[in-house]
Design goal:
The protein is α+β, with helices and mostly antiparallel strands. The chain contains 7 helices and 11 strands.
């Protein structure tokens, strides 16, 4: 599994848009796009997406939303062989977006700072997260609020110089998993453990209440660009 970087102002999807059963395609794109291209992306959005864009207070946040959502439509359109503006979405009770007519295709997206991260799959349920690595205020308080006791114990073994890296390893892997599950924060974060030690493979270690759950899921971690960390969680259906 590899990440393909989309060029600025892209029109045609690089590579083959064919999506074999059980495969996951990953894409990375800049949210900072030229004005003319942003305008073309905005024309692809649905009325409710345009309304949401207009509610952003800061122009940079509005433009990032338009870029991220417009490019998502272009990506999905390439796989569905349809026009981007013809795609319709629905949302589960926890807000996870999905295609109204899924055609056995699942997708997920995440964005942080200046990058958007997309995953598209046929025959798998997927979740992704990307984070721009930056200092965390009240580091240990945040970690103890969102990580399990086992994860905190692992984090405490990491050398201080690499604890921030380990923190974001844990954060992105947990976020990718709960996004794939589609249950939002109704799923208690302390009820499952992921690996986080730098250099160790990404893995779902255990989920309390279902001993077989961890064996069914696949977790993968990436450094898509300097200063960022990303994770993908997926399971065959």
């Amino acid at each position: 599994m590899k990440i393909i970087k989309l060029p600025d102002e892209w029109e045609t999807l690089p590579g083959s848009p064919e999506l074999a059963e059980g495969t996951v395609h990953l894409w990375l794109a800049s949210l900072k796009q030229p004005t003319a291209y942003l305008q073309s992306l905005q024309r692809l959005l649905s009325p409710d997406e345009v309304q949401k864009a207009e509610r952003f207070y800061f122009e940079k946040d509005k433009n990032a939303y338009i870029a991220g959502r417009g490019m998502l439509r272009k990506l999905l359109a390439a796989f569905l062989n349809t026009a981007p503006e013809q795609i319709t979405f629905r949302y589960n009770p926890y807000g996870k977006p999905m295609l109204a007519n899924p055609a056995n295709i699942d997708f997920n997206l995440s964005h942080s700072h200046e990058l958007a991260f997309y995953a598209v799959s046929r025959g798998s349920v997927i979740g992704v997260d990307i984070e721009h690595i930056r200092p965390v205020n009240e580091f240990w308080e945040v970690a103890r609020s969102y990580f399990s006791k086992n994860e905190i114990a692992m984090l405490e073994t990491v050398a201080e110089a690499r604890q921030l890296e380990a923190f974001y390893n844990c954060w992105t892997r947990k976020e990718a998993y709960i996004k794939a599950k589609g249950e939002g924060l109704s799923m208690p974060l302390h009820q499952f453990d992921v690996t986080l030690i730098p250099g160790e493979p990404a893995r779902l270690l255990q989920t309390r209440g279902d001993e077989g759950e961890a064996r069914r899921w696949h977790l993968e971690s990436f450094t898509p660009q300097a200063g960022y960390v990303a994770a993908v969680a997926h399971i065959l259906i």
